[in-house]
Automatic annotation (TrEMBL):
Coiled coil: none annotated. GO terms for molecular function: acireductone synthase activity. Its EC number is 3.1.3.77. Binds 1 Mg(2+) ion per subunit. This is Enolase-phosphatase E1. The gene is mtnC. It is an enzyme of class 3 (hydrolase).
Length: 218
């Protein structure tokens, strides 16, 4: 086993529907009110400005909804979603659920001295809230680092994995993901890679060649 294991979330640790249905449905009606109520927050103001620039118009909520409909991993959208989800988890409106094999695997790796990190398109704030409020309790003590498209970069580019390796201070890293393109990028950066083929998930029947493939974590 590598010194570090870095894990994707959606489709790897947790069902895609939990993000695309449960979390998206929770965030969608709250985006407009959140922007209105937190417009003075520098993080929110910066996200709004980015949205206007990327969308090419000033209808921020429409742009956000359009991106959500297309499941586009747009950074300012992820930022706002993460803030809303963070509050939702804190209030008890949301509880994260994992595939049955995930929590036992995370705990075993941690007990065996493997360092664990997350690399997800969801914001770091959203990730921390996700792992803090789960059906298995607070799992954040198991994790050393969180990476997203803001502090690391796009998940399908090797440069992002080089950047993460610099932060971790190691080249002995294994990346688990259900998306072949992400695995290709990690492999290009010199990481070990493992494809996670979950039955019923969008990439469950994908071609993971040349990456070793598992159907559950162990």
């Amino acid at each position: 086993m590598s010194k570090w294991v870095v894990l994707d979330i959606e489709g790897t640790l947790s069902a895609t529907d939990q993000v695309l249905v449960v979390l998206y449905d929770y965030a969608r009606p709250r985006l407009g009110p959140w922007i209105e109520q937190h417009g003075d927050d520098p993080v929110v103001a910066d996200a709004v400005q980015q949205i206007k620039e990327l969308a090419g118009h000033d209808d921020v909520v429409k742009a956000l909804h359009d991106w959500m409909d297309a499941d586009q991993k747009v950074t300012p959208l992820k930022t706002l979603q993460g803030l809303i989800w963070q509050q939702g988890y804190a209030q008890g409106d949301l509880v994260a659920e994992f595939f049955p094999d995930v929590v036992p695997a995370l705990r075993k790796w941690h007990d065996d001295g493997v360092k664990l990190a997350i690399f997800s398109s969801g914001s770091v704030a959203g990730q921390i809230a996700f792992f803090k409020h789960t059906t298995d309790g607070d799992l954040t003590p198991l994790l050393e680092h969180h990476f997203d498209t803001v502090n690391a970069g796009p998940k399908r580019e090797a440069a992002s994995y080089h950047k993460i390796a610099e932060v971790l201070g190691s080249d002995d890293i294994t990346f688990y993901s259900d998306v072949p393109a992400e695995l290709h990028a990690a492999q290009e950066a010199g990481w070990k890679t493992v494809g996670v083929a979950r039955a019923g998930e969008p990439y469950g029947n994908a071609d993971f060649t040349p990456h070793p493939t598992v159907w559950e974590l162990s």
